[in-house]
Write a structure and sequence with these properties.
- By secondary structure, the protein is of the alpha+beta class.
- Helix content is 35%, strand content 29%.
- The chain folds into two domains: 6-94; 119-262, no CATH class.
- The chain has three helices and eleven strands.
- The strands form two sheets. A seven-stranded antiparallel sheet has the order 4-5-6-11-10-9-8, sandwiched between helices. It has a four-stranded antiparallel sheet with strand order 1-2-3-7, with no helix packed on it.
- α1 (4-62) runs antiparallel to α2.
- The longest helix is centred in the N-terminal third of the chain and has 59 residues, at 4-62.
Length: 266
């Protein structure tokens, strides 16, 4: 027969296990609650920004005699809010986009990847590799971001003329310095995306579980990344520049399709 001490020890161990399980469940519920509160705050902030835009538009329309300096200030405010709205739209899209293509617009900061340096006149691809991702930016020999670079406007924005037949365009966003096009396919929940950016763009990309290949796009050096395991197995990303702009394509397509898209820019 078990002694009273043994019975007590067994009960204590069982109680401790139950208490630990309750603590874990409480932590999970608390995390869900905080996540929900954060999402609600973001939605409220987005609605407030949209209302501010409407008020500014009405003010400008009803007061054609506004001082030029005031109108310039309004235009700058609208431009900043447009960037914020674009970021909100891209975040919504990224929920279904390939996990290793996440685009952040903060002073024209976008995600990218690569593993070695390539010279562009006196400017280089500076690459900093980390365990889970790789950061990329262009610097001159003094470690500065290039200043005298071609400006990317909506009229100079180039897009692929070839898109795999199963995909169709679902979104387009442009702010000075960066343009983005998203494509969807019924066969996959992941977005196929194309971006064109100015050379001053800083980029980072999740390169975990990726194979890298050096390829060529219309005579320019390019880098191709392919996920070799996980939910995104087979998804590809391609990055290159033509001494004017940086280009990035990423999504659930194979090497042949992504290169064909890259070479079809018009």
């Amino acid at each position: 027969m078990m002694s009273s001490k043994e019975n007590f020890d067994d009960l204590k161990a069982s109680f401790d296990d139950d208490l630990e399980q309750l603590n874990q469940e409480f932590d999970q519920l608390l995390l869900k609650k905080l996540s929900l509160e954060h999402a609600l705050e973001q939605d409220q902030l987005f609605d407030e920004l949209a209302q501010e835009d409407e008020q500014i538009d009405k003010l400008a329309a009803n007061r054609p005699d506004l001082d030029a300096a005031i109108r310039d200030q309004l235009e700058r405010c609208q431009k900043k809010r447009l960037q914020k709205h674009t970021l909100q739209s891209l975040k919504k899209i990224s929920r279904r986009a390939a996990a290793f293509l996440v685009v952040f617009l903060a002073g024209f900061t976008v995600l990218f990847f690569t593993v070695d340096a390539v010279k562009l006149n006196v400017v280089e691809f500076i690459v900093r590799s980390h365990e889970m991702f790789t950061q990329f930016r262009m610097e001159d020999m003094f470690g500065n971001m290039p200043e005298d670079i071609p400006e990317l406007t909506e009229s100079s924005f180039r897009r692929p003329s070839y898109i795999p037949e199963r995909f169709s365009e679902v979104s387009f966003h442009f702010i000075p310095g960066h343009g983005y096009v998203g494509y969807e396919c019924q066969d996959t929940p992941y977005i196929l995306s194309y971006s064109c950016m100015e050379l001053s763009t800083s980029i980072s990309l999740d390169t975990e579980d990726c194979m890298r290949e050096s390829v060529s796009v219309n005579g320019y050096s390019a880098y191709l990344y392919t996920k070799y395991r996980g939910d995104l197995k087979g998804n590809t990303s391609l990055i290159w520049h033509d001494e004017n702009y940086i280009y990035l394509i990423s999504g659930p397509v194979n090497q042949h399709e992504i290169l064909k898209m890259a070479e079809s820019l018009y």
